[in-house]
Amino acid sequence: xxxxxxxxxxxxxxxxxxxxxxxxxxxxxxxxxxxxxxxxxxxxxxxxxxxxxxxxxxxxxxxxxxxxxxxxxxxxxxxxx
Length: 81
Description:
By secondary structure, this protein is an all-alpha fold. It is 98% helix and 0% strand.
């Protein structure tokens, strides 16, 4: 009976160690996945910010060109009067 109990305790310890190893591996994999998502999100946000900046600069450029044209037209109209 003592031999059976000793074998059972050994099996219990081995099972516990195996379960801990699986859990540790799963936790590590989850942490790596979260890190990859965070890095990907950061990169996506950076790309979106760069695109927004590019579009803003283009809009400012168009507005400046239009304003310049309007001022030129106004100046020409004033010269003819």
